[in-house]
Amino acid sequence: xxxxxxxxxxxxxxxxxxxxxxxxxxxxxxxxxxxxxxxxxxxxxxxxxxxxxxxxxxxxxxxxxxxxxxxxxxxxxxxxxxxxxxxxxxxxxxxxxxxxxxxxxxxxxxxxxxxxxxxxxxxxxxxxxxxxxxxxxxxxxxxxxxxxxxxxxxxxxxxxxxxxxxxxxxxxxxxxxxxxxxxxxxxxxxxxxxxxxxxxxxxxxxxxxxxxxxxxxxxxxxxxxxxxxxxxxxxxxxxxxxxxxxxxxxxxxxxxxxxxxxxxxxxxxxxxxxxxxxxxxxxxxxxxxxxxxxxxxxxxxxxxxxxxxxxxxxxxxxxxxxxxxxxxxxxxxxxxxxxxxxxxxxxxxxxxxxxxxxxxxxxxxxxxxx
Amino acid sequence: xxxxxxxxxxxxxxxxxxxxxxxxxxxxxxxxxxxxxxxxxxxxxxxxxxxxxxxxxxxxxxxxxxxxxxxxxxxxxxxxxxxxxxxxxxxxxxxxxxxxxxxxxxxxxxxxxxxxxxxxxxxxxxxxxxxxxxxxxxxxxxxxxxxxxxxxxxxxxxxxxxxxxxxxxxxxxxxxxxxxxxxxxxxxxxxxxxxxxxxxxxxxxxxxxxxxxxxxxxxxx
Lengths: 370, 221
Prior knowledge:
The complex is a heterodimer. Chain A is α+β, with helices and mostly antiparallel strands. Chain A has helices at about 15-35, 50-55, 60, 80-90, 135-150, 165-175, 180-190, 195-205, 210-215, 225-235, 240-255, 320-325, 330-335, 350-360, and strands spanning about 40, 45-50, 65-70, 75, 100-110, 120-130, 160-165, 220-225, 265, 280-285, 295, 310-315, 340-345, 365-370. Helix content of chain A is about 40%, strand content about 20%. Chain A starts with 15 loop residues before the first helix and ends with a strand. Chain B is of the alpha/beta class. Chain B folds into two domains: about 5-90 and about 180-215, D-Maltodextrin-Binding Protein, domain 2, CATH 3.40.190.10; about 95-175, D-Maltodextrin-Binding Protein, domain 2 (3-Layer(aba) Sandwich), CATH 3.40.190. The interface of A and B includes residues 115, 197, 200 and 285 of A.
């Protein structure tokens, strides 16, 4: 038997300054969501595994903690919140006027990490979802909310948001008429920016056509304003072109909002393609070795619950954000420390607690001496 | 902006540093001769750390090192989530199945495989439905079939001499491996200019090296 002093890997305690900072970050982020009209929603911590399998795709859902109920039905400790919010939108809120704006702060659990750097098995997610609104206005809205959140946390100059549209890659895959397995292989090469492997893969396919040669350059395309235009020279497929047009429109608004310095376009960001249907974005912050947030458009998800409608949203990892903020800076010094407590001393018990109640009524921070 | 580069100690180290030198990034002899594990290049733009090969992806995934040089064999075995923008074409070798000459890896109920690459081995045999028992060793893997600990081994083969000296032959090549330049996902975005500059310089150096020596054929990896 494990000694009782042991803690399962990937689990931990939070206390003191770090716990205060965590709460302050969560409050600040939820406050921004609220400011944009997003309503808080709390979802079940335990749900049917099938929900997550549908919502996140099998590979992601399989990372969850799973168990059965008394009737043998497969349950999971929630590995994400979005699936559940999408179900609520299609069912509980079926009759509510669109668009719906939801936000949440919730712990998610994963049995297996995605990488060595993501050792946590419990992580608190702060997220928002805009459901029932399509088009670039909705995309811009969540991007703007994300930017405000990061600015509010004092990360103004030190974050980066990378933008992509899944149609760019999907268009290439479609043009090359790849089957599911080759498509996934190509996706992995692009995702790893492994241009050598990608070129080999394409030449092995016997598609030494201009399409393949041009697709090989996809991995090098990252940057700002010029990228969609440059890519349009390379990618001729209709789907890719339409995606690039959308990205270009998005980018011109991003630039006009003064966010051109912190946002970039990265056409090689191709993770989560099964889930997202349009815009995808990732959020990076200086001092964190892995991304601190991600999001995008997922227009197909709600169809699983009988009502297909456009949706877009993102999540931020509270743990990763707090780790960066705890290393110092304004947000930490304002929120990490707390006011000194005054001690309440009086020999008589009744007198002591009367005094304590008086000071508490004035909002003072106190500590009982005994 | 200074970049931290993790270099795999051992097999790849010398070739990697020569490649960096050709790319215009030089570490002084003096620094290298010292026993320090972290040294800066002559212009103070890069910090090199020297770690065990299997630790390179760990440092890079956590973003403690922005980038690194490590063999593809290690990346496959550790299943690392890092970007791999460049094949450095150094330390060319292969991961292969080898067995005693006389048995040639013939099958029994369960194949006993000794290896330093349990994940690669399990995936290889698993993909063809061969039941195996993986015996993880940390060195001198060639001994295992000789002494009867295993039926065959999965190991890195460079020249094949060690195998031959122990009476082993390559039964099958699983995959080729070369040194890779790897980059942390966040550094790739947050230090984009510096990272791209280094990738391009190294890319040119790789190209020159191959042209100059007249070796290296297309598509070895």
